[in-house]
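Consider this today:
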Amino acid sequence: MARTRIPVWVLEQTRRMGSSEAQLLGIYPTLRAEDIVHAWAYVRGHRDEIEQQIRDNEDA
């Protein structure tokens, strides 16, 4: 996310690990509910890119 500097793949990976949107807002206090809505839209539109970023960072 540009304003928050939180990569969308990080939010998606955290969601996959079971965190709710409310928990994400608590983990990342600079994040707004609106940001999460935009992040999920980005994930839907760029699934392959997000999958690759998650894989790349699991191997790091």
Observations:
- The chain has a mean pLDDT of 92.
- The CA atoms of residues 21 and 37 lie 10 Å apart.
- Residues 33-45 form the longest helix (13 residues).
